Each structure stands twice: as structure tokens, then as C-alpha cells.
Automatic annotation (TrEMBL):
<dbReference type="InterPro" id="IPR017941">
    <property type="entry name" value="Rieske_2Fe-2S"/>
</dbReference>
<dbReference type="InterPro" id="IPR036922">
    <property type="entry name" value="Rieske_2Fe-2S_sf"/>
</dbReference>
<protein>
    <submittedName>
        <fullName>Non-heme iron oxygenase ferredoxin subunit</fullName>
    </submittedName>
</protein>
<dbReference type="GO" id="GO:0004497">
    <property type="term" value="F:monooxygenase activity"/>
</dbReference>
<keyword id="KW-0408">Iron</keyword>
<dbReference type="GO" id="GO:0046872">
    <property type="term" value="F:metal ion binding"/>
</dbReference>
<dbReference type="Pfam" id="PF00355">
    <property type="entry name" value="Rieske"/>
</dbReference>
<keyword id="KW-0479">Metal-binding</keyword>
<dbReference type="GO" id="GO:0051537">
    <property type="term" value="F:2 iron, 2 sulfur cluster binding"/>
</dbReference>
<feature type="domain" description="Rieske">
    <location>
        <begin position="5"/>
        <end position="100"/>
    </location>
</feature>
<keyword id="KW-0001">2Fe-2S</keyword>
<keyword id="KW-0411">Iron-sulfur</keyword>
<dbReference type="GO" id="GO:0016705">
    <property type="term" value="F:oxidoreductase activity, acting on paired donors, with incorporation or reduction of molecular oxygen"/>
</dbReference>
């Protein structure tokens, strides 16, 4: 059984924005797009800086340092210089609560 941890409420994440949280001491970037929330590992695979300090554009999260972009659904890079994906995690919404499991999305 997959363990979920409450990390915030929906209101904590601006629509079209990103925040950083920790789940079991793992940094996680939460992106809200409409009624959906996506969770990605909050460390850029290129420069090892927080992705949650970047910007969200059209379903991608852009790293603030060198401009690497990652698909919020898959974690795959959509723009250089990053060539390796970041992990994505399972998100559940329970009322207004956002819950995250560190198990990888399938």
C-alpha cells in the first residue's frame, strides 16, 4: 500500500504556479494547473538547484538558473540544457488537502 502524506492545501499553491515542500525529507515541487496538481522532484537534473524557484509555462516547469524545462506530467526534459528527467510522484486531492506519495507515477 502506498503511503500518502498531507503536504499543503490547494489554496497554498497558486493556480499556474509552483511551491516547494518536503515529503519524508525529500524536496518536492508542486505545480497547480487548473484543478490538477503535479509533483516533481524539486532538484534540477542539470544544475541541482530548486525547480520550485522557477516558472510554470504551458505544462512545463522552467529552472530559474539555466532555463531547463521539464514536463510537469512526466518529468522529462522538454528543453536544454537538461537531458535527464526528474522523478514525478503520485498526488491525491482529498477535499482541499494535497497529499503526495514518493512512489513514482507509472
Amino acid at each position: 500500500m502506498t503511503a500518502f502524506e498531507k503536504v499543503c492545501t490547494l489554496d497554498d499553491i497558486p493556480d499556474g504556479g509552483v511551491i516547494g515542500v518536503e515529503v519524508e525529507e525529500t524536496p518536492v515541487a508542486l505545480v497547480r494547473k487548473g484543478g490538477e496538481v503535479f509533483a516533481l522532484h524539486d532538484v534540477c537534473s542539470h544544475a541541482e538547484v530548486k525547480l520550485s524557484e522557477g516558472e510554470v509555462y504551458d505544462g512545463t516547469l522552467e529552472c530559474w538558473l539555466h532555463g531547463s524545462c521539464f514536463d510537469v506530467r512526466t518529468g522529462k526534459p522538454t528543453g536544454p540544457p537538461a537531458t535527464r528527467p526528474v522523478n514525478v510522484y503520485t498526488v491525491k486531492i482529498d477535499g482541499d488537502d494535497v497529499l503526495v506519495s514518493l512512489s513514482k507515477e507509472s
